[in-house]
Amino acid sequence: LNKLDLPQGTLDLLILRTLSLEPQHGWAISERIHQVSKETLLIPQGSLYPALHRLERRGWIKAEWGTSDNNRKAKYYALTRAGLKQLDSERAAWKQLTAAVALVLDTGL
Amino acid sequence: MLAELLSDIRYRLRATFRRDEMERELADELRAHMERETDKLVRGGMPVDEARRRAQLAFGGVERIKDDARDARGLAWIDIATQEIRYTTRALRARPGFTLAVVATLALGIGANAAMFGIVDRMLFRAPQYLRDPSSVGRVYLGSTFRGTEYVGEALEFPRYQDLTRWTSSFSQFAAIHIQPTGVGTGDASREMSVGVASATFFEFFNLRPALGRLFTAADDALPAGERVAVVSYGYWQVEDGGRRDIIGSKIQIGPVDFTVIGVAPRGFAGINTGDAPVAWVPLTSWASLRGPNFTENYSWGWLTVVARRKPGVSVASATADLSAAYQRSWLAQRAIEPAMPTIESAKPHAVFAPTQTERGPNAGPEARGILLVGAMAIVVLLVACANVANLLLARGVARRREIAVRLAMGVSRSRLLGHLIAESMLLALLGAVAGLLVARLVGGSLNALFGENAGNNVSPFDTRTLLYCVAITIGVGVLTGMLPAFHAGRSDVLTDLRSGARDSGYRRSRTRSVLVVVQAALCVILLVGAGLFVRSLINVRSLPLGYDADHVVYAQRNMRGVKLNDEQSRELMRRLVDGATTLPGVVSAATAASVPFYDHESTRLAVPGIDSVSRLGRFQMQRTSADYFTTVGTRILAGRGITVEDRRDSPRVIVVSQTMAKKLWPGKSGLGECVRVGSDTMPCSTVVGIAEDIKERHLSHEAEGNYYIVADQTEHTNSGMYVRVRGDGESSADPVRRGLQRLMPAGAYVTATPLSELIGGQQRGWKVGATIFIAFGILALTLGAIGLYSVIAFGVQQRSRELSIRIALGARVRGILGMVMGEGVRLAVIGVAMGAGLSLLSARSIATLLFDEPANDPLVFSVVAIVLLVVSIAASAIPAYRATRLDPNVALRAD
């Protein structure tokens, strides 16, 4: 098992969660998710940047140009207060959903 | 929630206005990502080139991501629109011939509509400028029945206007107006211009703020005689007075007397009329006091147009009923004074409360009845144009099938492709609309001349309502012409198209295009049948014997403008004018006259020994005239003699009657030598000395009216008009005649001269308008239709070139190929002709009343139109058919 397709809408949640630790640039976000998920989740690059722009438009994250570790210019994304609230509510909803799905799947019918 | 919304708006604004910056940032961001990915792979031990390749592979198409990011930024639509416009502009510029053909086609269609819309709108829909709440305002018409014929008019007597105001309760406002051509100005500078006579209440119907000074009020407009004050028009102020502010308080001579200027009406104010704005407005009562007591004191003089405003909540029906009741009460009041009036039971007086536009009232002219038809025909032309453009776009769509398939394969979404095709047709429609407005402006002047003054003067297509209409039809055209090709493109199968391209697959799918051609042909038939019917009507109406010669006669009228002459002086002046006219170069003869055909009529009581009631035998029209009358106007004398110089005031009274009148009064006899008492049965005998041919005086129809001619000098009246027969045509002779006669007039008085053909021409205008417009539209549609058919056939040949080449290679005969290709064109035309003829027959009844002596299903017109269409279709398909026979099998078979 080396690659899983992300269910619709979970990418936003993962980005928000990653950014809740510290501001990051795009590549680092995808790397981070890849690592944390024990290399199970590979973010489709094609959807990462559109997702970032969408979240920025909604005001959940904000972007800032900065200099990265090896002195490269990079666009850093950080969570806003609205984003934090959004993360909390989406996270709760996700947990509820997975629990419910697990319940159905694991219970002998 | 709110914060999110604000952020959204802020972001979108930035995305819209700082887009270059954002594009750059996005590119930087994506590049940085790629570099990091490469670094990582290199660190893992991969060679740099391989790492870069892998990073790129993992990343996918950069442009695609950019596109999606843009979508996420929420400005996709602006992006797409600009991109599409840029792309489309480039594509259209690459094919100038195609673009020009489409734009020209649409320009003609949209131009015809813009021009027609202006006229239809002005005649029927647009409310007068400045009028407050136009829907509640209407004109008052009064109708009554006399000897079985119903007459409805809007010339009301002053006491009647007072009665209606007094005895109705449904109206909040009443006003009376009268537009009068009058001499304005002093001495040589005086010219006949239109003057508005209005009650002070008239201005209260409008939201008017005078450009200068004030408007007149009830205090200026009071019986028995109002103040001699005038409100001049904005145009008069600017043109005649140079816009000087000291015009207030100055004098302006209107008719015989001076009025003091108290104000300038706002720009464009023309009351409720569509023609030229009157140069000045004067109070009704001051005008009436100059014209004598008849104008205000009794029911004998009908001269006022009455307008009224319904109270809120009062329906048109109840307002009309209220007016009718008041009119009947007024009728009784008049009958108390004039016991000879018919009773209410026989005359059935009633009122009509109609919109302010005369063409929507009960006396609308034939132009108004035809104008909606003509407007509808303009839309038909536009449809033909649209069909053509859709056809051209479809043809190109087939040719571009491979290009479209490539775009689809590269991942362009179908909705995006649809957007592209719509953008293309929209851009074309827009170009067509701009060109169309120019066309409308070019033809606007001649259209106005064609429709006459009711269409309003000084009109330009560049007014708001016309522009809005154009925007609406442009969008309609864009969608309509874009939909079909888009629908076709959306259905296409990528794989098949990629494989075969534009080569062969198109042919079997051209059914839509064939349908379009058939529809075009059908619409052409409708227009051309209309043209044929109106042309025949016009020919019929022109060939109707009038009984006089309209082309070489000028009607001149003297206007004394307050110069007082006694009876003898007046007769003397008329004699001098007639004698003077005959000495003018180019003039053959002249005679005085009291009435003008289609313009004014006169009749009086006649008594004939042996006949109980002459009036029961018919309505006989009188003409009071002088020597040489018949040769001057060109009415032939069939028996006896005309009026001569021997018929003087003191010689025995004579009368000339028309053929029909003689037949009705003295059946079986010639009528010569009979006695007619003119005026009453106590008058002396007038002896019939001549029988004249019948003339058309009140109606253009076959119905013969009775006319009689008496000697003006043998009556108490003096004529003020005269006919002048000229050698050249009346039109160009009118002004020399006017100038020649003007020299004989006393100072201050003046003469007007009008070619008789102009007075008659108005009667024929309906048919002339119909014939001209239908011919123009018909030819336009036929040209477009021919191009459409040509393009379908030519395209079919191109599509089938392989198949046709194989046939030729296999030995098909030239005649066979010609027949096959042309047969298809003719087949489409035949179906179209059949459909069009059917539709024309179905609509025959609605057009029948507009024709003259012409059945709406005239087989001659229908067959000529069918032949024309078939010939055109043969011609249009002959060229591509000939080209098909010239196909070189080698070229076609080796291609691809």
Entry keywords:
heterodimer; A: 109 residues; alpha+beta; 3-stranded antiparallel β-sheet; 4 helices; 3 strands; 56% helix; B: 896 residues; 12-stranded mixed β-sheet; 7-stranded mixed β-sheet; 28 helices; elongated
Describe the structure.
The complex is a heterodimer of chains A (109) and B (896). In chain A, 29% of the residues are buried. Helix content of chain A is 56%, strand content 15%. The mean pLDDT of chain A is 82. Chain A starts with 9 loop residues before the first helix and ends with a helix. Chain A has 109 residues and is of the alpha+beta class. By secondary structure, chain B is an alpha+beta fold. In chain B, the strands form three sheets. In chain B, strands 1, 2, 3, 4, 5, 6, 7, 8, 9, 10, 11 and 12 form a twelve-stranded mixed sheet that branches. In chain B, strands 15, 16, 17, 18, 19, 20 and 21 form a seven-stranded mixed sheet that branches. In chain B, a hairpin with a 2-residue loop joins strand 8 and strand 9 (257-264). In chain B, helix 13 packs parallel to helix 16. Chain B is elongated and about 135 Å long. The model of chain B is unreliable at 504-509 (pLDDT under 50). The interface between A and B is medium-sized, with 25 and 31 residues.
